[in-house]
Specification:
By secondary structure, the chain is of the alpha/beta class. It folds into 2 domains: about 120 residues, Rossmann fold (3-Layer(aba) Sandwich), CATH 3.40.50.2300; about 100 residues, Winged helix-like DNA-binding domain superfamily/Winged helix DNA-binding domain (Arc Repressor Mutant, subunit A, Orthogonal Bundle), CATH 1.10.10.10. It contains 8 helices and 11 strands. The strands form 3 sheets. It has a 5-stranded parallel sheet with strand order 2-1-3-4-5, sandwiched between helices. A 4-stranded antiparallel sheet has the order 6-7-8-9, with no helix packed on it. Helix 2 runs parallel beside helix 3 and helix 6 crosses helix 8. The longest helix has 24 residues.
């Protein structure tokens, strides 16, 4: 089981989350604002973070932004606001997933399980792959053993989800995947949210990998169908 940090200023919600997570066997750490959340992450090193959007002192967006500077821990945003801009903004700043309040406990537990499963799989890949497998595409190198991507010799700062997405596409070169297929293959479960999550993550990847994100060379779009990884020399 995992150590999970719950961050929300509504104590009733914190109590519900703590109860259900502990029932699943997880260790739960609590924080009630963004400043306290950052302190708890540095001290407790949780394996997953449930982060509320609207909080005092430091809101979820800014908290997520600051955490992403030093931590790749999966983050699930909790938001009471239904506007798409808040969801997308949270993902653009590095959140791996989001749930809109009011949420069902079963839905949230499914999200928690799926994001933790991705983390466990990533760790297993790190341990099992010992041949130093690296694949070069143009100016970028995907290093599976080290769980990193280099661009012109410099490490690209990616979240777990971003790395998983580019690794999957690169491992299935020239195969075109719809957004629904990518949600299933990369996010790893029946997704309750909308497919724009994929678009946002693709846009983040392009901003980090491409010299000109407006004219990508690696992660390409097949209009009306989906996304694929360029197998040609770049």
């Amino acid at each position: 089981m995992a150590k999970i940090l719950v961050v929300d200023d509504e104590r009733a919600i914190v109590d519900i989350l703590e109860f259900n997570l502990k029932k699943e066997g997880h260790e739960v750490v609590l924080a009630y604002d963004g400043i306290e959340a950052i302190e708890k992450v540095e001290k407790e090193n949780p394996e997953l973070i449930l982060l509320d959007l609207m909080m005092p002192r430091l809101d979820g967006i800014e908290t997520c932004k600051r955490l992403r500077k030093n931590f790749s821990t999966p983050i699930i945003m909790l938001t009471a606001k239904a506007e798409e801009v808040d969801k997308v903004l949270g993902l653009e700043l590095g959140a791996d997933d989001y749930v809109t309040k009011p949420f069902g406990v079963r839905e949230l537990m499914a999200r928690v399980k799926a994001n933790l499963r991705r983390t466990v799989v990533d760790t297993l890949h790190k341990v099992e792959i010992s041949d130093g497998k690296k694949t070069k595409y143009g100016s970028i190198v995907i290093d599976i053993e080290r769980f990193e991507i280099l661009k012109r010799g410099k490490t690209v700062d990616l979240t777990v989800r971003e790395f998983e997405l580019v690794k999957f596409l690169a491992g299935n070169k020239d195969q075109i995947f719809s957004r629904e297929q990518l949600l299933e293959k990369v996010w790893g479960y029946e997704y309750f949210g909308d497919v724009r999550t994929v678009d946002v993550t693709i846009r983040r990847l392009r901003e980090k990998l491409e010299d000109n994100p407006a004219e990508p060379m690696y992660v390409l779009t097949k209009r009306g169908i989906g996304y694929y990884f360029n197998n040609e020399e770049v």
